[in-house]
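Hi L.,

As promised, Carbohydrate-binding protein:
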Amino acid sequence: MKRTALRCAATTAALTVAAAGLSATPALSAATLVVDASESLGPVTHAASGGLYALAENERPDDSMLHPIRMRNVTQPAPGSLHEPNGQPPGGDALLVAPQADRAGAGVIIRMPDIYPDFPYQWVSWEDWLNKVDTQVQDRLDASTVSNVEGYELWNEPGWTWDTEAAGPFNEGWVRTFERVRSQDPVTPIIGPSISSYREDFMRSFLTHARDTGTLPEVVCWHELQSTPERVEQNIADYRALERELGISPRPIAINEYGSSYDDRDKVDQPGPVASYIAKLERGGVDSANRAFWYEYGTVNGLVTDNDKPTGTWWLYKWYGDMTGRMVGTEPPARRGLDGFAAYDEERRAFSVVFGDQAGDNTVRVTGLEGLGRRVHLRVESTPASGRFTHVPEPATVLEETRAVEGGEVEVEVPGMTETSAYRLVVESASGIDHPQRYEAENASVFRAERLESGTASNGGYVGRIDNSGDFRTDSYVDFTVNVPESREYTMTIGYANGTGAVATHGLAYNGGPWSTVEYPATGGWGEFGGTVSTTVDLHAGYNVIRLAKGAPHFGGATGYTELDYIELD
């Protein structure tokens, strides 16, 4: 295969970088990030676009800062919490902020030990703790209009915050707490053990005891807070091997804190290192991951300043939020340094990769782009490490060109990279084809349903098992976050499958408005797509959230069953 290199002259690039305001970092040894757009890692779910204590008071930050970054979920303090993390005043009550998370299409995890004000938590007694557990669970059960709670995190960082002397061994304490929660709420998932870093010995002991006592968490979690993320993928692989060894069925993994602040450069605020974290989390296949909390509530941990202005790192998550289609394989030159994550949308004929964490003249080589034709338009942008309080109005353009491509492969040199900055390469067909305004169900926010695959589905994926038992804790729905250019009424076409043999229905609502009903005539069978129905939605310019539901708050419930392939706006 002949390789077509896409490069600009070093002198021209140097001028471009200087004009963009980027620092002139001395060049290091050149490195190459290899991306294979034909290697699917699964649908884009924006798994790592979440935050610990990301929200506050149901209005901080402004909703306009949340929709573009496509938040997966947030971990928030216990209902009624008096917790003062890192010297901050109490805030971010999980049930108080749940409506804002819902507006953004995000789930909420309740961190139960945050009912205590101090950190590390100051144990009182078992009677005190179990009373606090009872109160939190009852508060959650009383909140019957909140359906985006994804689970209870029973404890946090037990390796050093659990008072073994006063409370007994953690494994036994886990069983007592688990059983207390389950005695009142047998439905909502339980998450743990939430250790501060992955430790095979701790996890082996915990999982073995939980397996033998019937108290395994539905979601397994730990933190990745090291100053560099090179262990992330290995930790995930080690955990999966431990599951197999112990005969435990695979659990979703939640990395409910990632990103360090352990040195004089707060890497959680540096887009370059964050790109490397996300790359490893995506390749590891985590279900969700939250930016660590080091500073202020209500900023998604440094992404937003003055409540409605983006920082440099926000733009990295905006690039992440823009990804559609399927995440694809990336191969860094080493476990440390240059790395990135990428997505390819065959339907829209668009590819993007976000990368960073190394200075100097580096290269991104992309293969598997045969579907884009012989000429492509490419654009390279950068976003700086601005810190938590500096507004960055937009990324800087480093390079923009149209070039010929052969064999579906391009190679782009990005000179003068800064280690702390992140970069995005966008490659699109130069043919000017207007792609459909299509949103894939498997790329949407999915609550209590499953992402599945079918050769007849658009982009190969769909959402099925959209079920509901009538209990608000089992509400099942799909939230599509859409971005439209103008305020008007749009025709919305829904691709679906209905194998019931009869007409089925979903509830339809958008932007928290009133409910209507969509009817789906029977189709050939489950997982066999091609059927469509159309309706109208009245949307405002910019971001909107469209919900299709079997069951959801303020909705009486749908009839029959339907699988969702996509929605398309016209």
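The CA atoms of residues 250 and 447 lie 19 Å apart.

Thanks again for sending the construct details.

K.
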